[in-house]
Design goal:
Structural class: mainly beta
Number of strands: 24
CATH topology: Pectate Lyase C-like
CATH architecture: 3 Solenoid
Number of helices: 6
Number of domains: 1
Shape: globular
Largest sheet: 17 strands, parallel
Length: 332
């Protein structure tokens, strides 16, 4: 028995500051493993589970169910694991809008700032009724660095995923692996350095829709959205659907080997506000190896770039994340 374990047993858990931990956390701390809390077995709400974790983080195992909570998470290295059979079995949901909450970021169902965040096999949703009163309504607002989402569904309408950075000169690195993301207006937006690996992007029906709205503000910034081997589907009856537009003048978005379904506007990209802004002169929008009904690049806007093999290689995971040990093994 090591010294720490002996002191815990002889001196009592309370003396070591562990008296408030649940039985599952006691066991994890005594064994030296990562703390684990379970919802709803140990805590009825996710908010309570987050509060129970130490500042160094831990794992939250979430049983199948719907958790209607508006959440914020600042602790680092917190991992969420949905214990259902599929992401739809574990749903984290709230229904604020920017109009109701007083700002786009404030509308988020789930705001995560703690670095090292991971989520797996669950859904994060904002179910605000956009059609009743159009407004931004964020499902996930993520500024964490070294964030990994695997097999996660993100559901919303306008501004579903706010993938952003705390410091524009040191962008947050975010990796989305086999995720499903749906929405319509600027529904993946912000200034993170984010890689979407084999994700499914679904565009909901609307007159005009944009998948991305990146917000790089200077050529010296290294943030970008990169979509590698993703799939785009578009709801029948949609109007003009675009890869994206530049929320800030130096927006940077790259689509690699994307399977594009029917309905993408042949020009691919659009100016932020045609006739008023000229972000096209500084934005970097590029494409490589697109396939499917919308994959013909011949009619793209003149300022979009068709990458060569060598140029495309510079946007793969091992290049944009030079140290990618934090990601772990991909799903393949």
């Amino acid at each position: 028995m090591d010294t720490i374990s002996r002191r815990l047993i002889l001196g009592g858990l309370a003396g070591m500051g562990l008296s408030a931990l649940s039985p599952s956390l006691w066991a994890q701390n005594l064994s030296g493993n990562r703390p684990v809390v379970r919802v709803p077995q140990d805590h009825k709400t996710l908010e309570a589970a987050f509060a129970a974790l130490p500042d160094t983080g831990g794992t939250v195992e979430i049983a199948a169910g719907t958790y209607r909570e508006k959440l914020q998470l600042a602790k680092r290295d917190v991992h969420l694991v949905g214990k259902g059979e599929c992401p739809g079995d574990v749903i984290i949901v709230w229904g604020d809008s920017a109009k109701m909450a007083g700002g786009t970021g404030k509308s988020s169902s789930f705001t995560v700032t703690g670095d090292g965040f991971r989520a797996e096999n669950l859904t994060i949703s904002n179910d605000y009724d956009y059609h009743a009163d159009p407004s931004q309504a964020v499902a996930l607002y993520l500024t964490a660095d070294r964030a990994v989402l695997r097999n996660v569904s993100l559901l919303g309408g306008q501004d579903t995923l706010y993938a952003a950075s705390k410091d524009r000169n040191n962008p947050s690195r975010q990796y989305y692996d086999h995720c499903y993301i749906e929405g319509h207006v600027d529904y993946i937006f912000g200034n993170a350095l984010a890689l979407f690996d084999r994700c499914h992007l679904h565009v909901l029906k609307r007159g005009t829709a944009f998948i991305t709205a990146h917000s790089r503000t200077a050529d010296t910034e290294t943030s970008a959205y990169v979509f590698d081997h993703c799939r785009i589907t578009i709801e029948a009856g949609s109007g003009n659907v675009y890869f994206g537009r530049a929320w800030r003048p130096y927006a940077q978005v790259i689509f690699l080997n994307t399977e594009i379904g029917e309905g993408l506007h042949p020009e691919g990209w659009r100016e932020w506000t045609p006739g008023k802004t000229e972000t096209y002169a500084t934005a970097h929008f590029a494409e490589y190896g697109s396939t499917g009904a919308g994959g013909n690049m011949d009619m793209r806007v003149f300022w979009a770039k068709a990458l060569t093999d060598a140029q495309a290689a510079q946007w793969r995971r091992e290049v944009i994340f030079k140290d990618n040990s934090w990601i772990g093994a991909a799903n393949g």
